[in-house]
């Protein structure tokens, strides 16, 4: 009974201390959640936002329009500037949790108060796909139950200190959170200054290699490892270089491309003004196209 009483007391204390820093993001019931990380600053997931401003609703029901300060779509993070009043930002946990660490997930129900659930860190060093298909690595998995629309809410330790930002629901009911480590601190600081990471983008949408092989088989062409281009932004870097829908990307900078992660690794290694040589299979023809980068665009998955 003593253990249960301690758990009840910890959950009650977390609800009291953490709830004022947890918000809803978006009009009405909100698309997701967020957490106050500094005076006038709320951290949330990029996929919770639509446009340059959003409604931020605090636990006391006050709704204020906030301005998006910085967005990292590939990392699924965003910082919103909003009047947080006298609400205190959460303290960050001093160290990353290990497997088995007790944690609490805290959501906001607006004027109805906080929703607090208990769980354990079930795995660390996990990964998932961000909104544009890039892998987000190093995340922690926990078992605290969360309702839909909880992405962007905090997971905290027994002292109410920020352990991670809930971001991705797993099919089994577990949740993955971006850990509140030094890397996240630096990323939040940069986004707060309006600095978003710059990543090379081709301006295309891709289909995985299995679909490409099946398509080539269906028209009597030999199977090839690669990524099938299903959409090309005509004004994007790849479109300007002559890449077409239906092309198969088999190489980039001389490296074989079998997965989207292979392609992202090459793009991330490209310098500020460099171009990328793509090996393309178009039907039975093999081509080499040089892609020169201009301003980043939002379309496509690479």
Question: Could you please describe the fold and organization of this structure?
Answer:
The protein has 302 residues and is α+β, with helices and mostly antiparallel strands. It has 2 domains: 2-192, Beta Barrel (Thrombin, subunit H), CATH 2.40.10.120; 204-292, PDZ domain (Pdz3 Domain, Roll). Helix content is 18%, strand content 38%. Strands 1-2-3-6-5-4 form a 6-stranded antiparallel β-barrel. A hairpin with a 6-residue loop joins strand 1 (22-25) and strand 2. The longest helix has 17 residues, at 2-18. The chain is elongated. The model is unreliable at 296-300 (pLDDT under 50).
Q: Sheet bearing the most strands, described?
A: 6 strands, antiparallel, barrel
* The number of domains: 2
- Give the rounded overall mean pLDDT: 89
| Estimated helix fraction | 10-25%
User: Strand portion, in percent?
Assistant: 35-45%
Physical arrangement of strands within the biggest beta sheet: 1-2-3-6-5-4
In short:
With 302 residues, the chain is an alpha+beta fold. It is built from 5 helices and 18 strands. The strands form 3 sheets. Strands 1-2-3-6-5-4 form a 6-stranded antiparallel beta barrel. Strands 7-8-9-12-11-10 form a 6-stranded antiparallel barrel.
Which key features would you list for this structure?
2 domains; 5 helices; elongated; 302 residues; six-stranded antiparallel β-barrel; Pdz3 Domain; 18 strands
